[in-house]
Design a protein that fits this description.
126 residues; 4 helices
Length: 126
C-alpha cells in the first residue's frame, strides 16, 4: 500500500504515528522475546507494549512539529531528528524496561530503522 503525497500534513502525521507505534512496538517485543530471550518472568508483555507505545508516541510529534520550526533543511532535519529519536527512545527503554544500555540502544536502532523503512514504503517523503 502506497498513499499519495497529496494527503494533508496532519493526516500524514496520524498515519505515520500509527505505523510508527505498531512497527516499533512489534519489533521491540519480538527482539526482547526472541533475540534477547527475555521471558515473561523478567519482563511482562504489558510493560514491553507500554514502552514501545510510550517511546514512539513521545518522540514522533517533536520530530514532525517542533524540529521543523528550528531546522529548515529537510535532509539535516531527518539526520538530527532521527539521531535524537534513537537516543531518546533508548533512554526511555532504560527506564521503562530496566535493560542494560547496550540492549536499549540496539532495540532503539532496530525499532526505529524498521519504522523508517515501513514508513517510506507506505508514505513517500514530501
Amino acid at each position: 500500500m502506497h498513499l499519495p503525497a497529496t494527503f494533508p500534513f496532519e493526516l500524514r502525521f496520524v498515519i505515520s504515528l500509527v505505523i510508527t507505534v505498531i512497527t516499533e512496538t512489534a519489533v521491540l517485543v519480538c527482539c526482547i522475546r526472541f533475540f534477547f530471550k527475555i521471558g515473561l518472568e523478567k519482563l511482562s508483555t504489558h510493560r514491553c507494549l507500554f514502552a514501545g507505545f510510550f517511546a514512539s508516541f513521545a518522540t514522533l510529534p517533536y520530530l514532525w512539529f517542533v524540529l521543523p520550526a528550528f531546522i529548515h533543511s529537510y535532509a539535516i532535519e531527518v539526520i538530527i531528528g532521527e539521531a535524537a529519536v534513537y537516543l531518546l527512545e533508548a533512554i526511555a527503554y532504560i527506564y521503562l524496561l530496566n535493560l542494560p544500555l547496550k540492549k536499549t540502544f540496539l532495540l532503539s536502532a532496530l525499532a526505529n530503522t524498521a519504522s523508517i523503512i515501513v514508513g517510506l514504503l507506505v508514505l513517500p517523503p514530501f
